[in-house]
Specification:
The protein is mostly helical and about 325 residues long. It has 15 helices and no strands.
C-alpha cells in the first residue's frame, strides 16, 4: 500500500511522470499491435534496421531547423533568445527527419532485395549499418560545436523521463493512426501475410501493402525512439507479438493479446522504474521478456511445462 500511495503522489505532483507513463503505454500498445505483422512476415530485422537508420535524419533535421528556422524565426534575434525560439521546433524537425531517413532506408532495402543478387539479411545489414555510421559521423561533427547538444546516448537508450508535450502529441497521433489503419486494412494485411499468391489473384497489390507496412513501421519506430531508444524499440515490436503467438493461433486474438501485453509491460515497467529509481526503457523490456517466458512455460496450448504435465498424465 505504501508503494501505491507513493506512486500516486509522484503522478500527482510530477508532471513528467504522468507524461512518461502515458507515452510508454501508447508505445507499448502501438508496437504490440504492429509487431504481430512484423513477426509473422519475418521483418524483425527490418525494424532493427529502421531504428538504427534514423540517425542521419536527426542530423539533417537539426541542421534544417537551425538554418530554415533560424532564418524565418530568429531574424533580428541573437544569443539565448534565438535558441529559446527554436527549441519547440526541434521535436517536430527530428520526427520529420527521422521519418524521411527511415523511408529512404526501407526503399533502398526493398530495391536491393528485389533487384540485386544479395541475400535479404545481407541487404538489410549493409544499408542500416551504413546509415547508422553516417548518423554517428554527423552527430560527432555537430557536437564539435559547443552550442550543440545532441546526446547519442538518448537516441540509443531513450529518455522517457524527458518526454515533452510535443513528443506526447506526436506519439499519440502516430499510435492512433497506426492502430486505425491496421483496423481498416486488416483484411489486406491478413491475406498478404499468409497467402500472398492468393492475394495477387484477388487483385490485391501486395507490393503496395508491403510498402504501406514499411511506412507505418517507420512511423512506429520514430515515435518510440523517445521512449525506449533505438536499441530497445525492436524488443517492443517483437516480444509482445512473440508472446501472444504462444497464447493463440487466431490473428485477431493475437493482435489484442499483444496490445494488452505491450500495455502491461509499459505500465508495470514504468512504475517499477519509479519505485526502484532505475532506467525505465530497459526495465519495460525486461518485464515484457518476463511475460514471454511465462508464456513459454505456462501457455495452455504450447507451454513447455503444460506439455510435460500432459505427457505424464498420458503415460500414467
Amino acid at each position: 500500500m505504501e508503494n501505491i500511495q507513493y506512486l500516486i503522489e509522484i503522478y500527482q505532483s510530477q508532471i513528467w511522470a504522468s507524461r512518461a507513463l502515458l507515452a510508454a503505454i501508447m508505445v507499448g500498445i502501438m508496437c504490440g499491435v504492429l509487431g504481430c505483422f512484423i513477426v509473422l512476415r519475418n521483418m524483425s530485422l527490418i525494424g532493427d534496421a529502421l531504428a538504427h537508420a534514423v540517425l542521419p535524419g536527426v542530423v539533417f533535421a537539426y541542421i534544417a531547423v537551425q538554418l530554415i528556422g533560424g532564418y524565418f524565426l530568429c531574424s533580428g534575434i541573437v544569443g539565448e533568445d534565438c535558441r529559446d525560439v527554436l527549441k519547440p521546433w526541434y521535436p517536430f524537425g527530428f520526427f520529420i527527419g527521422s521519418i524521411l531517413a527511415a523511408l529512404l532506408t526501407s526503399v533502398i532495402i526493398t530495391w536491393i532485395q528485389r533487384n540485386v543478387r544479395t541475400e535479404n539479411d545481407a541487404a538489410i545489414g549493409i544499408v542500416f549499418t551504413t546509415m547508422f555510421a553516417l548518423g554517428v559521423i554527423g552527430i560527432s561533427e555537430l557536437s564539435k560545436n559547443q552550442s550543440v547538444h545532441l546526446d547519442l546516448k538518448d537516441m540509443l537508450f531513450g529518455n522517457i523521463l524527458g518526454v515533452s508535450n510535443s513528443d506526447l502529441w506526436i506519439t499519440s497521433i502516430v499510435a492512433l493512426g497506426i492502430i486505425s489503419s491496421i483496423f481498416i486494412f486488416y483484411k489486406q494485411l491478413l491475406i498478404t501475410t499468409f497467402q500472398e499468391e492468393v492475394a495477387k489473384t484477388m487483385g490485391i497489390k501486395t507490393h503496395l501493402i508491403h510498402y504501406y507496412l514499411m511506412l507505418i513501421l517507420s512511423f512506429a519506430v520514430v515515435a518510440s525512439l523517445r521512449t525506449v531508444g533505438v536499441i530497445l524499440v525492436v524488443a517492443m515490436l517483437i516480444i509482445p507479438a512473440a508472446t501472444s503467438l504462444l497464447l493463440s493461433d487466431k490473428l485477431n486474438k493475437v493482435i489484442i493479446i499483444s496490445g494488452i501485453i505491450g500495455f502491461l509491460a509499459s505500465f508495470i515497467g514504468m512504475n517499477l522504474a519509479i519505485l526502484f529509481d532505475t532506467t525505465p526503457g530497459p526495465l519495460i523490456v525486461v518485464v515484457a521478456t518476463t511475460f514471454y517466458f511465462l508464456a513459454v512455460f505456462l501457455s495452455p496450448k504450447k507451454g513447455l511445462l503444460i506439455q510435460q504435465i500432459r505427457q505424464r498424465k498420458l503415460s500414467t
